Amino acid sequence: TVVPANSTTANLYVTLDKGSLLRVERPFHRISVGTREVADVMSLSNGLIYVLGKKAGSTNLIFRDKTGNVIAVVDVVVTNIDISGLTSRLRALMPNENISVAPLGPVSRA
Questions:
Q1: Residue 9 forms beta bridges with which residues?
Q2: Model pTM?
Q3: Exposed/middle/buried for residue 80 (C-beta within 10 Å: 0-12, 13-18, 19+)
Q4: Nearest CA among 13, 11, 47 for reference residue 29
Q5: Which residue has the higher pLDDT, 105 or 5?
Q6: Mean pLDDT in residue range 29-58
Q7: What order do you get walking across the sheet with 39-45 strand by strand?
């Protein structure tokens, strides 16, 4: 998932107990995690973040610049469904279709 330089919001779906990479195209100084029980983050470089899904649920990541201004907010949904794997499989089955997969309703731990 990429947060473009001209955008301040994005959505990221992470599978429970797995990680996902998030690229932020604007320089940031600090990341705040809304609910640390749901997701953990690690900055791999200035612009590349690793997000680990720890518990089914939702949270957000707030990116700030050196002066403390919010430059981006990313809504993170951790689900026990492998959204990206399911999307890849569906796209392979129907290559000519525009496929998008997202969880519907509350997420829960199965």
A1: 73
A2: 0.75
A3: middle
A4: 47
A5: 5
A6: 93
A7: 2-3, 19-24, 48-53, 39-45
**Percentage of residues in the chain having pLDDT higher than 90:** 51
Query: What is the mean pLDDT of the segment spanning 80-90?
Result: 80
In one letter, which amino acid is 12? Answer: L
pLDDT value, residue 105: 57
In the block, residue with structure tokens 């600090």: 30
Calpha distance 5→84 (Å, rounded):
24
Cα–Cα distance between 29 and 23 in angstroms, integer? 14
Q: How many C-beta atoms surround the C-beta of residue 8 within 10 A? A: 13
The Cα 5–Cα 23 span in angstroms is 10
With contact defined as beta carbons under 8 Å apart, do 62 and 28 qualify? no
Q: What would the DSSP string read from start to end of 2-46?
A: EE-TT-SEEEEEEEBT-EEEEEE-S--SEEEES-TTTEEEEEEET
37 or 87: which leads in pLDDT: 37
